[in-house]
Amino acid sequence: MNTLIADKEVSLAELSSVAQTDASHKIRTNQGLESQLAYVRQTKADHGYSKAIARLFDLVMSYIDDAEKAARNGRKAVWMAGGAWSPLYYAADTIPISINELGRLGSSDAMFVAEDYFQLPKESCSMVGAVLGEFYLRLGRTVKRMAVYNAQCEPLNLAWELLRDEGFDIFRVEAINRPNTADTKDRLDGLEAFLEQELKDLNQWLVDRPIDEDRLRVEIQRTNRILRKVRRIMSLRIENPLYIRSLASMYLLIGSAHYFGKPDEYENVLDTLIDELEHSPLIPLPRGKIVPLAWSGGRGQEFGVYKAIDDSGGAILSWHTPDPWLTDIDESLPPLKGYVRHIVSGRRGGSQQERLEQIERSLAKYGGVKGILSYGYVGCSRGGSGREYQRIYFQKRNIPSIALEGTFQVGPPSGQLLTRVRAFIEMLS
Q1: SS3 call for 177
Q2: What is the dihedral of CA 90, 92, 97, 99, to 10 degrees?
Q3: What is the rounded CA–CA span in Å between residue 257 and residue 254?
Q4: Cα 6 vs. chain centroid, distance in angstroms?
């Protein structure tokens, strides 16, 4: 195992060096599989006309390492599961480090560690294995504090306990979901009061002091300002859909949740991108047209799917992932109250019906979407039932959709998955 860890550290250093010096080199993992890092680097090269996209991917690539370095130099930084908590982290002068981004740009070694050291069966959820393996491989150099959300995934709830045994300090935010479409006022008041106390406890764990509501107000204002700019970009993109390709637009939305640990730099990317979209010529459509699509569910680790969509003449113009870019936080309320209400109600968490209604409203708004790609991870029963519910909902409204299943760990998508994506886009052409 020690040899594996040493090999991992050398591999990461080599990958980073190659990414900075040779944009045409195809990076491969230890198993000969094309890596996510290669797709990121190639997509950056494909956007050579955009300074904003280049800086966006610089933020993507430096996020985890820079946050860990800042922690070693005395800054507060804590791992975070779920972008909903970012304003609270920044108000507490703490850099949020997204757990998902560690897995997204990790290594194929992670699954070997999960199966060898943690003794996870090969049939286990790939998300759990990838997360456990990545954290084990970073034990000697990463932050060992993390806040997790108990409603995210039950197998992950067990995985956090395995990491606790490895010396991680784990704080659990208890589940707050709205499964009902018509809750009573008393029920909503109870949910909000419960979450408010959970966030007070989280802040106390982060910095050992009560929430600074004045700072939280400033962070809420920043969050809303950023979300408005993101929505402006997504609207401008409708008229110039290939200016920002699918993978780049995914990372643009991911950044709206945590700003890649650098809020000012991320917002500067948004400002530059808005200016580019308002003044740059249209990128020609290779086939004379594009097929406007919506993406729903997990954001996906298999970046080859996004490339297949672009190459097949599709464009994802409407995104419905965990990133909260569609709604603002209510600034007319006291900061903590508005923040809590946004999490309980504004994000549509837990209410499949409300979430689907929100998707339906956005389909026409963002590019007249012709079809929906619904993505989830193999072996996730909750995601599987959700995708079936969504399929039936949109089938009744004569909106085509396709359910896709992929793996969480680093690696290319299967040929079958790519074939289904291409065939779906061809059907809609």
Answers
A1: coil
A2: -110
A3: 6
A4: 29
Beta bridge partners of 372: 294, 401
Residues 167-215 have pLDDT tens digits of: 999 999 987 777 766 778 898 899 899 999 999 999 999 999 999 999 9
In the numeric block, which tokens belong to residue 20? 């900075």
> Do 27 and 15 meet the contact criterion of CB atoms below 8 Å apart?
yes
Place of tokens 């779920």: 82
Positive or negative: CA dihedral 146, 139, 300, 380: negative
Calculate helix-pair angle for 36-46, 51-72, nearest 10 degrees.
Answer: 140
**Coil vs helix vs strand at 371:** strand
Whose tokens are 């950056």? That residue is: 44
Residue 4's nearest CA partner among 102, 141, 104, 110 is: 110
pTM of the shown model: 0.87
Give the contacts of 400 (CB within 8 A, at least 6 positions apart). Answer: 370, 371, 372, 394, 424, 427, 428
Q: Is 142 exposed, middle or buried (0-12, 13-18, 19+ CB in 10 A)?
A: buried
* Tokens found for residue 34: 């094309």
Q: Which two tokens stand for residue 163?
A: 């990491």
